[in-house]
Amino acid sequence: MADKSYLVAGLGNIGAEYAGTRHNIGFTVLDAWAKASNITFEDKRYGAMASDSLKGRTFHLLKPSTYMNLSGNAVRYWLGELDIPVENLIVVCDDINLPFGTVRMRTSGSDGGHNGLRNIEELLQTRQYARIRIGVGHDFNEGGQIGFVLGHFSLEQIAELPSITQKVAAGIKTWALAGSQMAMTQLNTKVKEVESASGQ
């Protein structure tokens, strides 16, 4: 089987003050993936990179160092540097329009008001790339969006994050191995629904 490469971009902001915030859940997913696979990130141009392999596929995990609003710079650079087609790109980000614990994968679409997705769309000049949006909830008053997304999860939510990150990483692997339709069937449910279906 010929090797196939994929770019998995988890969005977030660099810096200790942003670690573990809602807006950084893309970083959280990739950090959990790296820990589970015993791989490490290296600081590279425009971001931290790590690579993982599975059944002839190579997953290049990217945590952009450009800050959220300029995520497209890192994504565009690494697609070119690694010679990866845009159809082999998948982006992981937070979404305040989804309840916490809800995951939604799409193969294309609008940025939905997310600045990272907007910048990627602008620089790639296309909406035709896969993205996984992870719900962080909408528990803030009018004008409180920035403080909310840059805030931290509750202790109860933190306890659920491992299930969410594991599910998203598994879904990305399914996307590469079995296609987007299978991955969307796997991902587009709430974590608790999946656990109930499996009898956990």
Question: If you had to describe this structure to a student in words, what would you say it looks like?
Answer:
The protein has helices at 25-37, 71-81, 115-124, 145-149, 155-178, 180-187, 191-197; strands at 4-10, 42-44, 47-54, 57-64, 89-95, 103-106, 130-135. The protein has 7 helices and 7 strands. Helix 1 (25-37) packs across helix 5, helix 2 packs across helix 3 (115-124) and helix 5 (155-178) packs antiparallel against helix 6. The model is unreliable at 193-200 (pLDDT under 50). It starts with a strand and ends with a helix. The longest helix has 24 residues, at 155-178. The chain is α/β, with parallel strands linked by helices and 200 residues long. The chain has a single domain (4-197), classed as Rossmann fold.
Categorize the overall geometry: globular
Q: What is the highest CATH level, the class?
A: Alpha Beta
Category from helices, strands and their pairing: alpha/beta
Strand order of the largest sheet: 2-3-4-1-5-7-6
Helix content: 25-40%
Rounded to the nearest angstrom, the distance between the terminal CA atoms is: 36 Å
Could you give me the name of the CATH homologous superfamily? Peptidyl-tRNA hydrolase
Based on CA atoms alone, the radius of gyration comes out at 16 Å
Largest sheet: 7 strands, mixed
| CATH-derived topology | Rossmann fold
CATH architecture: 3-Layer(aba) Sandwich
Number of individual domains: 1
Could you state the order of secondary-structure elements as H and E? EHEEEHEEHEHHHH
Counting DSSP H or I runs of 4 or more residues, the number of helices is 7
Averaged pLDDT:
91
Strand content: 15-25%
Low-confidence runs of at least 5 consecutive residues: 193-200
